[in-house]
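[09:14] KT: can someone run the structure on this one? pasting the chain below
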Amino acid sequence: PPRPAAPQAAPQAAAPVATAAPPAADAELQTAWERVVDEVMRKRPTLGAVLAQARPAALVGGEIAIVLTGNHFHREMLNDGANREVVLQAVRRWVVGAERISVQAGGEAAGGAVAHPAVQAALAEFQGEVVAVRPRLPEGEGQ
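[09:31] RB: done, structure tokens below
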């Protein structure tokens, strides 16, 4: 009887730890993002209001992807150098491991050109960021 009991105990102990990690990481990122928004709101209320409508998508390789719902004005506001620096300082302070930010429109987060493996490889190789995604004109138009 002791032989079957020992192997059964190890898998039961390991399973909850493995399943608990991803939701905890998401919750931590969300909590950290709320702190980022609060800090930015105190410094620049208009910028903070834009961030309050955004959400963190993922933290990968030191870069936090921010999904922005809103119009192009909101995106331009976040891409402004001074505003971006305010957000980046708050992100570095509150989001553990974040060194860079990228801003994505709500539709881009679900896939599209930004998620394409070739685009991701180029971003990683050149340490770049996507600043705009425009639809391609049909052949013959505008050429």
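[09:33] KT: thanks! Confidence is low (pLDDT under 50) at residues 6-22.
[09:34] RB: yep, looked fine to me
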